[in-house]
Amino acid sequence: MTRELEAAYLKGLQDSLDAGFKILEDGGTAINAVKAAVVVLEDNILFNAGRGSVFTKDGFQEMDASIMDGTTLKAGAVAGVRNIRNPIELADAVMRNSTHVFLCGNGANDFAIQQQIKQEPDDYFFSQFRYDQWKATQDSDNYSLDHNHQELEKFMKDKKFGTVGAVACDQEGNIAAATSTGGMTNKKYGRVGDTPMIGAGTYANNKTCAVSCTGHGELFIRAVAAYDVSCLVEYKGMTLQEAINTVVNEKLVKIGGEGGIIGVDALGNAALIFNSTGMYRGLKNNIGVNEVAIYK
Questions:
Q1: What is the pTM of this model?
Q2: Other C-beta atoms lying within 10 Å of the C-beta of residue 225
Q3: Which residue blocks in 125-239 are alpha helix, DSSP H?
Q4: Which of 163, 179, 195, 208 is catalytic?
Q5: Is 170 left (phi over 0), alpha (psi -120 to 50) or beta?
Q6: 35, 110 contact by CB (below 8 A)
Q7: Radius of gyration over alpha carbons of the chain, in Å?
Q8: 277 an active-site residue?
């Protein structure tokens, strides 16, 4: 990791924190804060979501996103969308402006047009390092996860990327979560991971916690990871930290699941736990904590 690259990542994380926190500081809602934080990361080409999304087997981007409001348990999600500048905006529109929770593929794109969600041409989503990453695996059936450094170093040297997400607690004690991703490099068959699945990659309930997951999506789906954290808080009386640690470092590890989870509860307690080499992460609150980090 060069100093310049590290500084760029840390700035991207800080910009996201600042965008979300400003909404909270001004008395805004947790749901608007997580959306704003994720939009910043989707617009940053360094992160695997929105503009920086990875290439599929067929050489384009298929993006997934979800958002959930812990106050109402309302949620919105999209999968396999193309040319959407900010998939989290589309997921939010599904939650607010439809009677559905989950839209995918062409139907989701049609809904985006109806909702006047901003779209971009293919060139907007092109980045040279993503292209090189894809070309290195294009002629095989391999796919690559951004969290696995050993998998990446064959063709990406020091660059690591992943799903983006945000959780927030507002002044009213309401919480929310949002997650967005470009998925796996060289993925095929219209593969969808945990990111847009409520209860697997994203979950929020004022009674328990709001969580956003990043990692090997298939394993997070099988573990119903996001909802499992909430259940451990609700039914076993665990703290947020205990619940996320149990899921990340025990349950997921047992089935070979790699990645991490960020979470917050209605009292403002936060946890950022991962079992992978690193996880780009940050935390900002109203008692002076403001930190961003990459490594353990």
A1: 0.93
A2: 29
A3: 128-137, 149-156, 217-223, 225-236
A4: 163
A5: beta
A6: no
A7: 17
A8: no
